[in-house]
Predict the structure of Glycosyl transferase family 15.
Amino acid sequence: MAVNVRYTRYLALALVGMTFFYLVSRTNLQLPNSASFARPVQSYNEFKANKNEYPGVNSTERVNATFVTLARNSDLWDMVKSIRTVEDRFNREYNYDWVFLNDKEFDDEFKKLTTALVSGKTHYGLIPKEHWSYPEWIDEDKAAEARAEMERKKIIYGGSESYRHMCRYESGFFFRHPLMMNYEYYWRVEPSIELFCDIRADPFRFMKENDKKYSFVISLYEYEATIPSLWSSVKKFMTNHPEHIAEDNAMEFISDNGGETYNKCHFWSNFEIGSLEWLRSKQYIDYFESLDQDGGFFYERWGDAPVHSIAAATMLRKDQIQFFHDIAYYHVPFTHCPNDEQTRLDLACSCKPKDNFDWRDYSCTNKWFKVNHLSKPDGWDKKD
């Protein structure tokens, strides 16, 4: 008897279900599908106009500063990684602006996604052609021969024309772009970098309040084959412009014999926080223009890192250059990680101290500490 009752119940439910689907099929009722949830694709301008802004808890304490990135559209996904780490570790509390520069127009995909990720305002600038091309005094055939010879010798980026334009632009022009003229300080960020520790104190404010003009986290030796005549060009500038050379500068960091030769030490410029007013000063512009006239950006492969570093080491006081020990940073293939355990715990760091590059043979950070009579941090000599 119980079996018959259960069978009757199942039969009734089946009839109800069949009736429902019959009625649906006979009406215009539309069941939802994936297409029903699709939204129209917005242009960048539409997206930006509708973006919600959420002030960071420290946003009212900001100084006049911006992040700046030189990138291509093809760098988008590597740039996403960099923005995410900068926002998570620091900028979500401050909402600083971000300027993106490119020698081609940025496409809507790049602008929409980076605008969505950055907590501050984003700005996108096109590099003027005259800043990304050969100046009139450069022999382009000679430059092409130099690239071919460096490529034959397998010198890194030796055969790249665009790399040379990039180094020249970062050395002498990015800080003069109209979008950058609105700011006093900059923080350079490249694609595929990582920050390993929370940044609790605002580096921009620290720079401003302590009269710092330039900063770094990693230093190392430059490839000598890329800059054979750079120091000769620098010495010519120093002879012609002794008024630009600072007293109590950091010449000892870049020369082991009082300026006679260059020891190849430089600050790694893919991370740098600095003063835009200093870079726009007559002092620095005279320096860049003197080097630029000598043609080493194209006839050799002068990088912006040694160009910036030599300028800072000769034209600033030592105490105007800051080593940010607490900013844990990675750019392939090197890592800066705070040595002392308590700092790593306090700042929720995720880096391995054994990966720290600071005290290795190819690093110049040890020399920086000696020149400035600084004590090495606790744990610097630990290997694990």
In short: The chain has a mean pLDDT of 91. The chain is about 40% helix and 10% strand.
